[in-house]
Design a protein that fits this description.
The protein is of the alpha/beta class and about 400 residues long. The protein has two domains: about 1-200 and about 375-385, Rossmann fold; about 215-370, 3-Layer(aba) Sandwich (Rossmann fold), CATH 3.40.50. The chain has 16 helices and 13 strands. The protein has helices at about 15-30, 50-55, 65-80, 85, 90-105, 135-145, 155-170, 180-185, 230-250, 265, 280-290, 305-310, 320-325, 340-350, 355-370, 375-385; strands at about 1-5, 35-40, 60-65, 110-115, 130-135, 175-180, 195-200, 215-220, 255, 275, 290-295, 315-320, 335. The strands form two sheets. A seven-stranded parallel sheet has the order 3-2-1-4-5-6-7, with helices on both faces. β12 (about 315-320), α13 (about 320-325) and β13 (about 335) form a beta-alpha-beta unit. It is globular, with a radius of gyration of 21 Å.
Length: about 400
């Protein structure tokens, strides 16, 4: 089958969740289908991207767009009533390229990742199509309404209403739809949302596996550090949780690791809080650390940082919100907290109770190995696409 995949970002390098999901799904789907890839790109193309993607795609088309284009995209979206999340990525030159690729390759199925790409396929009712909502953008914006500065609230309120409407509307453009977790599925504002199929992320357990390394940091937070939920989470961790920890264990060190750290994140750095930015091999930072702490406050979707840490046998502490998507057993496979005091108690307990830390780590490891691998999760998607 010829499978035409439309992405809002080039899925390499794998420093963001949508890229990680797209890349691994392409890798698995390419074993049974011919992949024709179209991806938008608003930043410098990584030197290795094409070489990596050519391993799995028979045709690749990447369309670079400028800040000038983005400005007019957003302006047009603002006055047309479309969500800015959608308008940012939609413009006539890209539509023309999509049309050309469909005419040339005559795909048997179209797969769009995120509602950002849904506009491009509305004119093709005759071709079977699948939308991967992945995350529920409207819920992420709704949660930011209570946390962002006052001057952002009018824009966020507008975007929230538009996203709610568009997430509902986009449902009907497609024959089938997927999403990352049951929790996210229940947030889609459509009467037939039960038809959405949950396709979780996986973790590459041949890559993310236990590594022996000298421990240098007690705690780790990892992720794209320019992403608002991650920024808010590390602020919460450093400013609200760590004072309790440092009062009991003053030498505890926290490593904040991940691409493009925002100024807010950089300002958290101290002799006890180390901010690294992008690293070529994130596994080393996992291996250097004793515990992963992910106090996600406004997150949607499934946290890859938890899957990767568990696969490397790190005990993890996270929020109820994040664990609802993950589905691990609290106090058995993961520790869950919802207040600074609870996080601090869990951190101190694991740092002082090595047998318990090892047991949580091993239970989490077995949970991920059994429940989350790309081959099994993408098989759900492949079944939808092939109609088998």
């Amino acid at each position: 089958m010829k499978l035409f995949i439309i992405l809002s970002r080039v899925p390499y390098p794998l420093e963001k969740g949508d890229k990680l999901r797209a890349f691994n799904q392409i890798k698995e789907l390419s074993q049974k289908h011919q992949i024709i890839l179209f991806a938008l790109n608003d930043e410098r193309l990584d030197d290795k991207a094409l070489a990596e993607l050519k391993k799995y795609c028979v045709a690749i088309s990447i369309l670079k767009f400028s800040k000038f284009t983005i400005f007019f995209n957003l302006l047009r979206a603002f006055f047309s009533g479309k969500p800015l999340q959608v308008g940012y990525f939609y413009f006539s030159k890209a539509q023309k390229k999509v049309d050309e690729l469909i005419a040339k390759h005559k795909p048997d199925h179209i797969y769009c990742q995120l509602i950002r790409t849904a506009e491009y396929i509305k004119k093709y009712p005759q071709i079977p199509k699948t939308l991967d909502y992945m995350d529920v953008f409207s819920k992420g914006i709704e949660r930011r309404l209570s946390t962002d500065p006052f001057y952002m609230k009018p824009f966020l309120a507008m975007e929230y209403k538009r996203l709610l409407k568009y997430e509902n509307k986009a449902f009907d453009y497609f024959n089938s739809r997927t999403i990352i977790s049951e929790q996210d599925k229940n947030l889609i504002p459509h009467p037939d949302k039960n038809k959405i199929v949950v396709v979780p992320n996986g973790v590459d357990t041949s890559y993310f596996k236990p590594i022996q390394h000298k421990k240098e940091y007690e705690l780790l937070f990892n992720g794209n550090m320019n992403y608002p939920p991650n920024i808010e989470s590390v602020e919460y961790l450093v400013e609200k949780v760590m004072p309790y920890v440092w009062n009991k264990l003053p030498h505890t060190r926290l490593l904040i690791s991940g691409a493009s750290p925002h100024k807010i994140v950089m300002d958290l750095a101290s002799d006890k809080v180390i901010v690294t930015g992008w690293v070529d091999d994130i596994r080393i930072n996992f291996a250097k650390s004793n515990i992963l702490v992910a106090p996600m406050q406004i997150s949607i979707g499934l946290q890859n940082k938890l899957l990767e840490a568990m696969a490397m046998q790190l005990p993890c502490i996270t929020s109820t919100l994040a664990n609802n998507a993950l589905g691990a057993k609290p106090d058995v496979q993961i520790l869950v907290a919802d207040s600074p005091e609870q996080y601090a108690l869990h951190i101190i307990d694991l740092l002082q109770n090595e047998p318990k830390a090892k047991q949580i780590a091993m239970n989490g490891y077995q949970f991920v190995i059994n429940a989350f691998n790309w081959q099994n999760t993408t098989a759900i998607l492949e079944k939808l696409i092939s109609g088998k």
